[in-house]
Amino acid sequence: MEPLTTPRLLLDPWRERYAADLVRMSSDEKVMRHIGQGVWSPAYAAQRHAAALEHWSQHGFGWRAILDRADRTFLGLAALSWLRDPIPGIGIPAVEIGWWTEPHAWGRGVATEAAEACVSDAFHRVQAELIVARCTPDNAASQRIIGKLAMTRHPHDAHSLYGDLVQVYTLSSPSTGE
What we know:
The chain is α+β, with helices and mostly antiparallel strands. Helix content is 30%, strand content 26%.
């Protein structure tokens, strides 16, 4: 479980020590306004934390803590996971990407830098053929990141893990030639 590095960030594989960061971040209404049904209870955050650790254990990739490379301040998380729910027109296996950042990191390009590193990891190390992102239509910040990643809008919307209708975007591996 090696970290990914960018000029400003260290993307550390999700570890037990990030449990409190997840509980804190997932209880912040500003962070959670575009994620499912709002803030998470500490118990639900603990369940998701355990699932993230299990995904790493089983698959060798998953959530990563976004840390400031200079001082190791926790800035958020960037996630890669196997797409669990079928989306019309998208075959399995596909890797889903997502990101959340702390409000103090907003507007600085942190999520974009982390997402770009995760896309590279997904295509080169994980050998994904397709990356999928889901985004609520009103999440302008994530829509901008999706655009910077050169993802394209999928013709079918889908439901998120939490049941809300979201737009779907895809990015094919350069090695597939699509």
